[in-house]
């Protein structure tokens, strides 16, 4: 059974940085992508970015391009989201998810496995 565990959330001042980690276990194939999503209070969950496990190709939402960077460590089965120049509007619960197939898209329906989320608060 695939399990995903996020860590690294916290509270930071605007302009600061955080690095989220997503540790995976239980996956027996490598052809998938890991996506990051976020959900602010009272809002729908939105796509943030994604990275393919094979090749490391990345894809980001316009709202975070140039500020957030996804990476992975295949030896540790971990994916990271480096978040720089954080803004108060980045405050949300951040989730990592794995796709069922290899497509690294922005649609939640492509993702079949989800972590429990980690809270990020950016203070102004």
Shape annotation:
globular
Strand content: over 45%
Instruction: Write down how many β-strands occur, each being a DSSP E stretch of 2 or more residues.
Output: 11
Order of helices and strands: EEEEEEEEEEE
Query: How many distinct helices?
Result: 0
Radius of gyration: 13 Å
Report, as a whole number of angstroms, the end-to-end distance: 40 Å
Structural class: mainly beta
Mean pLDDT: 94
Q: What's the helical proportion of residues?
A: under 10%
Q: What does the main sheet amount to?
A: 7 strands, mixed
Low-confidence stretches: none
Topology readout:
Blueprint: E1 3-7, E2 10-13, E3 18-25, E4 33-39, E5 45-52, E6 58-60, E7 68-73, E8 78-83, E9 92-99, E10 111-114, E11 118-123
Parallel strand pairs: 2-11
Antiparallel strand pairs: 1-3, 3-8, 4-5, 4-9, 5-6, 7-8, 9-10, 9-11
Compact summary:
It is built from no helices and eleven strands.
Describe, in plain words, how this protein is organized in 3D:
The chain has 124 residues and is mostly beta strands. Helices cover 0% and strands 52% of the residues. A hairpin with a 5-residue loop joins strand 5 and strand 6. The model has no long low-confidence stretch (mean pLDDT 94).
């Amino acid at each position: 059974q695939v399990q995903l565990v996020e860590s690294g959330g916290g509270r930071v001042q605007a302009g600061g940085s955080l690095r989220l980690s997503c540790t995976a276990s239980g996956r027996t194939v490598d052809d998938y992508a890991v996506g990051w999503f976020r959900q602010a209070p009272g809002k729908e969950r939105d796509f943030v970015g994604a990275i393919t496990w094979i090749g490391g190709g990345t894809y980001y939402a316009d709202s975070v391009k140039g500020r957030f960077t996804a990476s992975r460590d295949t030896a540790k089965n971990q994916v990271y989201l480096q978040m720089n120049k954080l803004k108060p509007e980045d405050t949300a619960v951040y989730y990592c998810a794995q796709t069922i197939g290899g497509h690294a898209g922005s649609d939640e329906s492509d993702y079949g496995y989800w972590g429990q989320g980690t809270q990020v608060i950016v203070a102004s």
